[in-house]
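User: Please work through this fold.
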Amino acid sequence: MFSENDRPHVPPLQRSLALWLALALALAQAAGAQTPLEETARIAAEPNFLGRPGGAGNDPQTSVAQPDFSARPSANLNTSIQDLLEPYGDPFAARSFLRTRGIAYSFTYVGESFGNVTGGARRGGIAEGRLDFQFDADLDTLIGWRDAAFHTNLYQIHGTGLSRHYVDNFMSVSAIEALPSSRLYELWVEQRFFDGQLGIRVGQLATDTEFAVSQTGTLFLNSTFGWPNIMASVIPSGGPIYPLAVPAVRAKYVPNRSFSLQAGIYDGDPAGPPRRGNDPDPQRRNRTGTNFRTNDPALVIAEAAYAYGLWDCPVFVDGSGGLAEQGLDRQF
């Protein structure tokens, strides 16, 4: 049992947010309640890339296929509050209209609350969240640019991080933890060649959306299972990983369902070196994600993966990769 002094302190505003979030979730679950048979049928009909030959994104079952960010759950049973809203989920049929023109957009919100009751730097509780806006355009359908696509996503991050304020650990408790800000993440155009086997992507990119990502590891909440921290610790400003991205070029070659090869060249410092009098935190030095730095030593990364036993179960994937930071002579 905790004494009154041992209880983690949670500010009233955070308690109110947590209560409203719990109430909203309860109402959503009640509105979308299903019988066990209906739920089984729904899950069976929803996409699930685990155990399928193509993997996520129709690539071999490897991290090359991760579509969004390293915190995205693998084997995700995609559900949306839009389905619960029925006709009100698409006001004026705007989403359907834009989809026929090659445009798709989405809003994803992640909210969470944690408390540290022992250990770390101090005891306390937090509430944090992130709103993720994503916009995609099929440029062939939209403007006739064959085999080309456009993508961007923006974050609105708010709340207090448990690691930063209470635990003071190196690998953050939550994979979405970042300084409160509204920021641009990725912004790119991709051109595909040879019936889609080769893709060249140019723009502002992050490495942890595609490289060194474990599809099964992304099921977990904390950052331990995301981008390898041994890389983040030796790359300036942690490297181009969430929530920072940099100007880059990435090429990916997928000749068949068993093999994929990708390589990219990125600006090696998303926030730039700290100067005397500047804030040492890279997220503050690039608070909006719009520094667009191109004059730092380059970060070069490559990854190959081969999947065999695709038509048997289980699927096995063997992958290897390499990373080099220009001017620092660090390789993995």
